């Protein structure tokens, strides 16, 4: 996989609920929604042990070749 230089054009994060600091596990996943020639769009989600959404974010990146 070739790494390309990029910069964020837009970044948005929604924090859905607070997270206790008692050692619970959080799981984060990221997905590429679109990877074009000059832009890419991705999203990420964080869920707690019970599968409840904790945070959700999206980003649009400009790719420099």
Automatic annotation (TrEMBL):
The keyword Hydrolase applies. Residues 10-55 form the Thioesterase domain. Signal peptide: none annotated. This is Thioesterase domain-containing protein. InterPro entries: HotDog_dom_sf, PAAI_dom, Thioestr_dom. The lineage of its organism: Bacteria, Bacillati, Actinomycetota, Actinomycetes, Micrococcales. The keyword NADP does not apply. CDD domains: PaaI_thioesterase. Keywords: Hydrolase. It comes from the Bacteria. It comes from Luteimicrobium album. Gene3D superfamilies: Hotdog Thioesterase.
């Amino acid at each position: 996989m070739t790494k390309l230089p990029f910069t964020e054009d837009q970044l948005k994060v929604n924090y859905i609920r607070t997270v206790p600091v008692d050692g619970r596990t959080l799981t984060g996943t990221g997905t590429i929604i679109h990877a074009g020639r000059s832009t890419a769009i991705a999203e990420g989600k964080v869920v707690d042990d019970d599968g409840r959404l904790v945070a959700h974010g999206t980003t649009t990146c400009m790719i420099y070749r």
